[in-house]
Amino acid sequence: MKKILSAILAGTMMCSMAIGFAGCGGSGEASKTETTAPAETKAVSTADSATKDSANKGENGELHMATNAFFEPYEYYENDKIVGIDAEIAEAICDKLGYTLVIDDMDFDSIITAVQSGKADFGMAGMTVTEERKQAIDFTDTYTNAVQVIIVKEGSDKVKTKDDLKTAVIGVQMGTTGDIYVSDYEADGATIERFNKGADAVLALAQGKVDAVVIDNEPAKAFVAQNEGLVILDEPFENEEYAICVAKGSELTEKINGALAALKEEGKVDEIINKYIKA
Ligand code: ARG
């Protein structure tokens, strides 16, 4: 097992050293990227990007970003264009590195696989840095902080504190840290309902099908603003940090970190965040 692992590792390293952005594993096998969005709305940034559906490590000067674009204000659709904090920071990073950004929208729990397999060059999706994920992919430096919060129906008797979750029906977006954290409560008697989109979990809450939703603070604010009768509990659930994920050993980590550091220095990262999150 160890031998196989190190062989794979060595292969990956050799590959990235030898051909860099030309990439390993070929783009042939990566010809289909799962997406939850209709094909014509799946990609933004270049006119012909909708027809390109596999990542190519900078071939044609493009970098493919895997995301799940139902996560306002980080990534969401404005008409058929994906906008948001992540989309704009990614665009600024690609500008600095001299690449055209192509955004591939997919289920959140497909992003890491897409990056691992080379279908996408990087993943950016309000993605929290966790030790478990670090086993599968590398993270760049972090670009912002976040908090997992609890959304309930206004005046909820069932869930008033974090502790009450232990006996509640909890809605989460599948594969997110919210999902991972509350899964610990299953042993206490909680029931977890996992949805493809955060919005679907929130809809289930509005319809009384779940007692609470655990999700990132900023999307939570957007959901509460869009759905009457929902509130965010004051007690935070968990603090986190977001970063961009790349394939293990990829030289893209260093490049992105360089661009990100410059953008932080120039105040561009704050500017983008403040554009979408009003103090
Ligand atoms: N921060 C959470 C996580 O990393 C949720 C991210 C969900 N992002 C999205 N674009 N749907 O698991």
Walk me through this protein's architecture.
This protein has 279 residues and is an alpha/beta fold. Helices cover 33% and strands 24% of the residues. It folds into 2 domains: 41-143 and 243-276, D-Maltodextrin-Binding Protein, domain 2 (3-Layer(aba) Sandwich); 147-240, Periplasmic binding protein-like II (D-Maltodextrin-Binding Protein, domain 2, 3-Layer(aba) Sandwich). Strands 1, 5, 6, 7, 8, 9, 10, 11 and 12 form a 9-stranded mixed β-sheet that branches. Helix 2 (85-97) packs across helix 8 and helix 2 (85-97) runs antiparallel to helix 9. The longest helix is centred in the N-terminal third of the chain and has 18 residues, at 2-19. The structure holds arginine (ARG). The site of arginine has 13 residues, from loops.
Question: What's the CATH class label of the largest domain?
Answer: Alpha Beta
Q: Detail the poorly predicted runs.
A: 1-55
What can be said about the biggest beta sheet? Answer: 9 strands, mixed
Identify the CATH architecture of the largest domain: 3-Layer(aba) Sandwich
Q: Classify the beta-strand content into a percent band.
A: 15-25%
Q: Rough shape?
A: globular
- Tell me the number of strands: 12
Q: Whole-number average pLDDT?
A: 84
